[in-house]
Amino acid sequence: MYKLVFFVPDSHLEHVKAAVFASGAGRIGDYEHCCFETRGTGQFKPITGAKPFIGHVNQLEQVAEVRVELVCHDTLISAAIEALRQAHPYEEPAFDVWQLSELSSQA
C-alpha cells in the first residue's frame, strides 16, 4: 500500500479527486473514495520557461489549495499518479508518495 498526497487549487478539487478515484485509489476495505482534506496556502514562483496555470513568470504567487491524502494499492499507484497528472491544472503538480509499512496496510 501507498499513501498519495497531492495539492490542488479549490477550483479543480472535485475534478482531480474524481480522476484519482477512477484509477482505483482511495479504497479502504469495503469503502471507496476515501480521503482526508486540509485547506491551506500554496506558494510558488514560475521561472522563465514555465507556463503557469495561475500567476505570472517571475512573480511570487500564493494560492488557496487543498491537500488531499488517500491510500492506494501497490498495483494501482502508477495509474493514480498518471490520473493525477492528467487531471491537474498545473503543469507541475506537487505530490508525495509514501510506501506504507505492512502494519499500516491491512486495508
Radius of gyration: 15 Å
Strand content bin: 25-35%
Largest beta-sheet characterization: 4 strands, antiparallel
Shape: elongated
This entry's quaternary arrangement is single chain
Contiguous helical run count: 2
- Using the 3D structure, state the CATH architecture of the domain at 2-39 and 67-99: 2-Layer Sandwich
The side-by-side strand order for the widest beta sheet comes to 2-3-1-4
Query: What's the CATH topology name of the domain at 2-39 and 67-99?
Result: Alpha-Beta Plaits
Number of strands: 4
Q: What's the mean pLDDT score?
A: 94
Please trace the helix and strand order, writing H or E for each element: EHEEHE
Helix content: 10-25%
- Gap between N and C termini: 8 Å
CATH class of the domain at 2-39 and 67-99, named Alpha Beta
Structural category is alpha+beta
- Ranges where pLDDT stays below 50 over 5 or more residues in a row are none
Organism: Oceanisphaera avium
Protein name: NGG1p interacting factor NIF3
Characteristics:
NGG1p interacting factor NIF3; 2 helices; Alpha-Beta Plaits; alpha+beta; 4 strands; 107 residues; N-reg_PII/ATP_PRibTrfase_C; 20% helix; DUF34/NIF3_sf
